[in-house]
């Protein structure tokens, strides 16, 4: 949706770090999410962050939130071939907790 | 643990035909959702059901109807399919403001 924007493609070498960026417009967002979609599959929740947090780390994943700039990023350390997928950023606006707004998705390709 | 189950996984229809996409969840979630996924556009919300007995329109409801049959099941109906409805359809569910869980999708082609 137009409320959430992501770059469409990212190519990264195996073993390097990947950084996927996302910007959103709703300053009242409560939760921000990262989902992963592998070919032919549904969306798998990777991680999420509450809007009063700046950072969240979970194994190889680090999420950074800059509320002032309305910018969210996902860093994947030591990127592996199994990380090749489409990554979606999504937000839950405070005004309507039932609506989840998605970005268009970033296709990450990991090359050997 | 099945989670969110969608049927069928694939379907081809002719323009004007009708069909119902089925979705069931076994996580005792209150809320259920239908999205469509089109290339370069992410997921767009078609309809949602905040609780059993209620349904509301999302971003792109035209051409669709839904039924919240019971707490577990939420179906999406295309009364007269159009080529513009060729898409991948995802069902999701959650409780309160917890993250949504998604099914594996139904790939629908309309000729």
As a percent range, the share of strand residues of chain B is: over 45%
End-to-end CA span of chain B: 36 Å
Ranges of chain A where pLDDT stays below 50 over 5 or more residues in a row are none
Radius of gyration of chain A: 13 Å
Instruction: Estimate the strand proportion of chain A.
Output: over 45%
**Strand tally of chain B, please?**
11
Mean pLDDT of chain A: 91
Describe the structure.
The complex is a heterodimer of chains A (112) and B (111). With 112 residues, chain A is an all-beta fold. Helices cover 0% and strands 58% of the residues of chain A. Chain A contains no helices and 11 strands. Chain A has strands at residues 4-6, 9-13, 18-24, 29-37, 43-50, 55-58, 61-66, 71-76, 85-93, 101-102, 106-111. In chain A, the strands form 2 sheets. In chain A, strands 2, 4, 5, 9, 10 and 11 form a 6-stranded mixed β-sheet that branches. In chain A, strands 1-3-8-7-6 form a 5-stranded antiparallel β-sheet, with no helix packed on it. In chain A, strand 6 and strand 7 form a beta hairpin. The model of chain A has no long low-confidence stretch (mean pLDDT 91). In chain B, strands 2, 4, 5, 6, 9, 10 and 11 form a 7-stranded mixed β-sheet that branches. A 4-stranded antiparallel β-sheet of chain B has the order 1-3-8-7, with no helix packed on it. Chain B has strands at residues 4-7, 10-13, 19-25, 31-37, 43-49, 56-57, 65-68, 74-78, 87-94, 101-102, 106-110. Chain B has no helices and 11 strands. Chain B is globular and about 40 Å long. In chain B, a hairpin with a 6-residue loop joins strand 9 and strand 10. Chain B starts with a strand and ends with a strand. Chain B is mainly β. Chains A and B meet through strand 4 and strand 5 of A and strand 5 and strand 10 of B.
Keywords:
heterodimer; A: 112 residues; globular; B: 111 residues; mainly beta; 7-stranded mixed sheet
């Amino acid at each position: 949706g137009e409320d959430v924007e992501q770059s469409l493609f990212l190519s990264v070498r195996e073993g390097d770090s990947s950084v996927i960026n996302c910007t959103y417009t709703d300053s009242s967002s409560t939760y921000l999410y990262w989902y992963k979609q592998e070919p032919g599959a549904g969306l798998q929740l990777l991680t999420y962050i509450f809007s009063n947090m700046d950072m969240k780390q979970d194994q190889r994943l680090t999420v950074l939130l800059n509320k002032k700039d309305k910018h969210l990023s996902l860093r994947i350390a030591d990127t592996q071939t199994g990380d090749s997928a489409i990554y979606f950023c999504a937000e839950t606006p405070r005004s309507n907790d039932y609506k989840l707004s998605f970005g268009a998705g970033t296709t990450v390709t990991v090359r050997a | 643990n099945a989670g969110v189950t969608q049927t069928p996984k694939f379907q081809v229809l002719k323009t004007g035909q009708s069909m119902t996409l089925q979705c069931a969840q076994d996580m005792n979630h209150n809320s259920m959702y239908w999205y469509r996924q089109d290339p370069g556009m992410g997921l767009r919300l078609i309809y949602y059901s905040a609780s059993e007995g209620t349904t509301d329109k999302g971003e792109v409801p035209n051409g669709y109807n839904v039924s919240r049959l019971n707490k577990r099941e939420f179906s999406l109906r295309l009364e007269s399919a159009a080529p513009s409805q060729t898409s991948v359809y995802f069902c999701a569910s959650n409780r309160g403001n917890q993250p949504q869980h998604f099914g594996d999708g139904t790939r629908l082609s309309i000729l």
